[in-house]
Amino acid sequence: MIFHLVYFLTVGLAASEPELLEKAVQGDKEAFGEIVRMYEKRVFRVARRMCNCDDDAWDITQEAFIKAMKAMHNFNTEYRFFTWMYRIVSNTAINLSRSRSRRAEVEFDEGYGGGGQTATADTAIQETRRDLLVTAVQKAVEQLTPALRSTFVLRVDQELSYEEIAETLDIATGTVMSRLNRARSFVKTFVVSELGGEL
Amino acid sequence: MTCPDKSTLMMWVDGELPESEAKSISEHTRYCSNCRGFVSAQKQMESVWRDAWVDPADAHFETMRRKLKPVVPWWRTQRTWYIAAAVCAVYIGVKIFYVDGAGKSLSEIAAEETSPTVRVTTEEIPETPVEEIIEGGCDGLEEEIGIPQQEFASGQSGISEIQEELSVHSRLSATDSERADEEEDVLLEGDFTVASPENSLYFGVTATGYLQDTCEVSDLPVATGECEETDELCWDLGSVSSTEPGGLDTGAGTLSGGVGGAISGSAGLSCDDLTDSVQRVCPSQMEATAEASVYEGYRISITLESKEIIQIQRYQWNSLFLLIDSLRPENRYSIGEPLVLRISNEGIVSGPDVLTGTVIDLPETGYGDCAVTVLFD
Questions:
Q1: B198: how many CB neighbours lie within 10 A of its CB?
Q2: Could you tell me the pLDDT band of residue B224, with boundaries at 50, 70 and 90?
Q3: CA distance B109 to chain A (A)
Q4: How far apart are CA B346 and CA B330, in angstroms?
Q5: Does B130 contact chain A (CB < 8 Å)?
Q6: Which fold has domain A1-100?
Q7: How far, in Å, CA of A42 to CA of A58, rounded?
Q8: Is some CB atom of chain A closer than 8 A to the CB atom of B13?
Q9: pTM for the structure as a whole
Q10: I need a labelling partner for B232 at 20 to 30 A (CA). Which of A41, A116, A165, B145 fits?
Q11: What is the predicted ipTM?
């Protein structure tokens, strides 16, 4: 903590993201550490959305940052870092997904994403229904193929544009659209089924 | 105006439609309760899921960041030595220019004395590589196999043979991609698996597709089959095997039907398939992964990682590097080290030099992506 303070006061005072990226590309590990701080929550969120449990998400997040750190010298600072980083996370998550047999029973861990707000008596029913809906969507997302899941997560959760998703996943925009349609169609069908025919 | 299809409606929701089209759909949804209801339900479902997210506590991220940092003793860090050097320099500077009690500076005293040499030296000690901390690195392997690691990067024997066979793979890649490109109606995602009867390296096709109407599988090395519907969305095209050791004549097939197109594949090795001698060389920590992606315009990505040096049969070696070497270096995009996999076999030792030195151009057409995984369980 003290070192970070000293680092910011001496070297990285008010360093912008582009400056940090430049330094990180040059091998400055402290600058990379700051980048990790900037992106860790988003990276974890994408990872968690793309896998089935928290432990996997942490592994993916850590591995993604390690890969990024190793490859940082290859990063072209003219490009957007987050698409580069998202690509690493997506690939890491997809690889993990491929290398493991799918769990027969998937339970959504509500430790993160569960809301955590206290429901009042007036809103209890709505809250319950909302929780059911969230759980159903999460289950549906977990059943998507890795390719569809990554597209769905980047659009619906991260709200990236189709162009950004295409850049991140290195696919054509048309492919983004077709994957997104299929993913949404599957999710909706699944959720309607889970909730007993109503949405 | 007739109701737009659902995908168009969702593009409108996503803000991806041209302004004029977006305006007409906006007008339409004002009076069309069906479309309005569809959009509303979809938006609600997605926003509820998105907004329900709660970040983990910061302590979790702290823990992760600690794991990212190499565990380097403080006395081994560059920073420590820089600071030590700086302190010494300041101290000496003060001593030199500060006047002593007798009214003479150290520099004056130095001029009077015969050997007043003061020398400050610093030693730059490199930090421990991250992979050494996290994965154990390859240091132990050097002892195990008895070959200095530099030789792995510069070994050249056997390369010409690899080069010859590279073109075979290149053609296969082109065939896959061209066919996929021609078949604009293809919408496929799946693994390519073509197994060698020698049970060593396999790579080829195990395709799982999403086909709306009909599909055909033909020209595969061994099997020709039809789609088998497994559920409403998914068609399992099964897998095929090559009869060639090393699986070189693999992966070319036609998959048609449906809409859109993407093909992915995988290849692998397992310790069960390796010979006894290999297994002795390879401890349980063996793990290597490789990815290669062919995208529109033929940009390719690849990552290889290995915890150990492994020993495999010659044809396995060649086949593996067919996958790796069909890359144009200017198009290489790596999300990890360009290559950390090292494989030895009967004196054939190699590393990144081999890969970057032999590159086969790929055609300028293509579509889809391909992933290769090599696992040693």
A1: 16
A2: very low
A3: 37
A4: 31
A5: yes
A6: Rna Polymerase Sigma Factor; Chain: A (1.10.1740)
A7: 12
A8: no
A9: 0.46
A10: A165
A11: 0.79
